[in-house]
Amino acid sequence: MKYKMLVVDIDDTLLTDDHKISIENKEMLLKAQELGVYVVLASGRPTSAMIGYAKDLGCDVNNSYMISFNGSTITDLKEDKVLFEHSLTKEQIHSIYDFSQVNNTHIITYLDGKIISERNSEYIDIESTITGLELVIVPSFKDTVTTSAVKCLLLEEPTYLKTVEPLLKAAMPDLSVCMSKPFFLEAAPFGVNKGAAVKIIAEKLNIHQSEIIAVGNAGNDLTMVQYAGLGVWVDNVTPQLRHLADVIVASNNNHGVAEVVRRFILT
Q1: Alpha-carbon distance 103 to 157, whole Å?
Q2: Nearest Cα to 166, choosing from 236, 108, 117, 99?
Q3: Are 45 and 68 in contact (CB under 8 A)?
């Protein structure tokens, strides 16, 4: 099979634990693009927290695309413009906030390139560090969030947050809900996910899903891993998901993405 698109999650997949692209991963992704393969980064991160990695890999000069906010936004990197964007309404965001208060979780959203929250926590600090976005503590979440936004994040201790996930899905079936890290529970508009975003790009480029490889490590990657012709987990995948991909490669710290390119694109 000649693959034409390689979709790669960023955190805990492409990046090592110290948030860097290994030399091995970079070299192999550049080589894949030399062969005409579209490399698409797909992340729960905001767009601004992904663009540096995309440019470092040459995805812009190779006319590729980027999926941010777990599929809520698709960016055409060559044209530097948004191809697709789907947001939560103000009313949905306020309902998610009410749910978070009843179920004792922190909640954040994103406005004007900043993280909005009523409180701070160790988990919100992690999101701010990962994304590089400023955290703005506001007196009233609802009074501040008066427009649409691409997603909300519920944050809490992992064991507890896992029990909240089915409650949120049951309470708000009009949302797409998934775990991106053990302490991050993502809420986006219904039908918005990485798999749906990959399908949009593939149709635009006239690439069949059988010609796509998708690589990830967590629950928010599952839709794209299952949509792709070849679904791949890195070895540090969330344990409950290990059986839900076609292949498991080396971990994020051991250049699993480079292994994918060597095994399935260069051969």
Answers
A1: 12
A2: 99
A3: yes
What is the per-residue DSSP string for 35-97? Answer: TTPEEEEE-SS-GGGTHHHHHHTTTTTTT-EEEEGGGTEEEETTTTEEEEE--B-HHHHHHHH
Encode pLDDT of 142-180 as tens digits: 999 999 999 999 999 999 999 999 999 999 999 999 999
Q: Could you give the CA distance from residue 89 to residue 94 in angstroms, rounded to a whole number?
A: 9
Strand 106-111 versus strand 152-155 pairing type: antiparallel
Strand 38-42 with 106-111, pairing: unpaired
Count the Cβ atoms, other than its own, within 10 Å of residue 208: 11
User: How far lies 34's CA from each of 28, 97, 99, 203, 261, in Å?
Assistant: 10, 46, 48, 22, 12
State the amino acid at position 77 in one-letter form: L
pTM: 0.93
Separation of alpha carbons 264 and 29, rounded Å = 12
pLDDT digits (tens, 9 = 90+) for 185-234: 999 999 999 999 999 999 999 999 999 999 999 999 999 999 999 999 99
> How far, in Å, CA of 234 to CA of 117, rounded?
32
CB atoms within 10 A of CB 82: 12
Whole-angstrom distance, CA of residue 255 vs CA of residue 44: 21
Q: CA separation (Å) from 66 to 46, 84, 122, 213?
A: 11, 11, 28, 15
Mapping DSSP to helix (H, G, I), strand (E, B) and coil, where does residue 2 land?
Answer: coil
Q: Which of 135, 138, 145, 164 is nearest to 94 (CA)?
A: 145
Q: At what angle do helices 158-171 and 90-102 cross, to 10 degrees?
A: 130
